[in-house]
Amino acid sequence: MAQLSQDQLKAEVGRAAIRYVTPGTIIGVGTGSTVAYFIEALGEMPSPVAGAVSSSERSTAALRALGIPVLDANEVDHLDLYVDGADEIDPNGCMIKGGGGALTREKIVSSLAERFVCIADASKRVDVLGTFPLPVEVVPMAEASVVRRFAAGVLGTSGTAVLRRNDDGTPYVTDNGQHILDVRGLRIDDPLAMESAVNDWPGVVTVGIFARQRASLCLLGTPDGVATLTFG
Ligand SMILES: O=C[C@H](O)[C@H](O)[C@H](O)COP(=O)(O)O
């Protein structure tokens, strides 16, 4: 049998996540190429969801295009389910997220949810977080100081933070009007401590470590099928 491509694995887990969705409920929806398949599958449910709280303008547009009502996060005080991808996921369900720039809203929406179902292809599974450059959303006037703090080191590891840019060289601007630093070279042995430490720095809006709001389970797309990883 031919090997499935990374994109096919993303499609498999995106579709598989539908089994956790209860028709008629309001769910939280993440952002990214894997979530795009999940949204597609949501649109095909025979009994649809009542609505979704979205984590990005991109996902909002995709949901609305399928006729799925999008609610503001302020209108909802609890969600049973949040479904989103990850850039890396460790053996405890801690993740690096934000490769697509949506980390802040993803953290807000996932914080409302009882259960975080992560959907990812097998390349995202790591033993220690940090190979994928860590996205950090920052207020622009704090960029230089945050770059210096990572270079000086935090919790025994240091990294090189670089401003994320668009193809035309202009700074990438998030849905919240802020910038992103991508930090290379970190070894994140204690994701919870690192999340807290970086969150405390002035000017940091959101660090792309999801350790407080880690995944409850992960549907991992592997060449042998979809594996379900659960985290205690
Ligand atoms: O900001 C983007 C999100 O955190 C995504 O969930 C993450 O980057 C994974 O994206 P993809 O499913 O495209 O690999």
Automatic annotation (TrEMBL):
The gene is rpiA. The active site is at E106 (proton acceptor). Homodimer. It comes from the Bacteria. Keywords: Isomerase. It comes from Raineyella fluvialis. CDD domains: RPI_A. This is Ribose-5-phosphate isomerase A. Its EC number is 5.3.1.6. Substrate binds at T31, G32, S33, T34, D84, G85, A86, D87, K97, G98, G99, G100, K124. Catalyzes the reversible conversion of ribose-5-phosphate to ribulose 5-phosphate. One of its GO terms (biological process) is pentose-phosphate shunt, non-oxidative branch. Belongs to the ribose 5-phosphate isomerase family. Gene3D superfamilies: 3.30.70.260, 3.40.50.1360. Pathway: Carbohydrate degradation; pentose phosphate pathway; D-ribose 5-phosphate from D-ribulose 5-phosphate (non-oxidative stage): step 1/1. Signal peptide: none annotated. GO terms for cellular component: cytosol. It catalyses: aldehydo-D-ribose 5-phosphate = D-ribulose 5-phosphate. GO terms for molecular function: ribose-5-phosphate isomerase activity. The lineage of its organism: Bacteria, Bacillati, Actinomycetota, Actinomycetes, Propionibacteriales. InterPro entries: NagB/RpiA_transferase-like, Ribose5P_isomerase_typA_subgr, Ribose5P_isomerase_type_A.
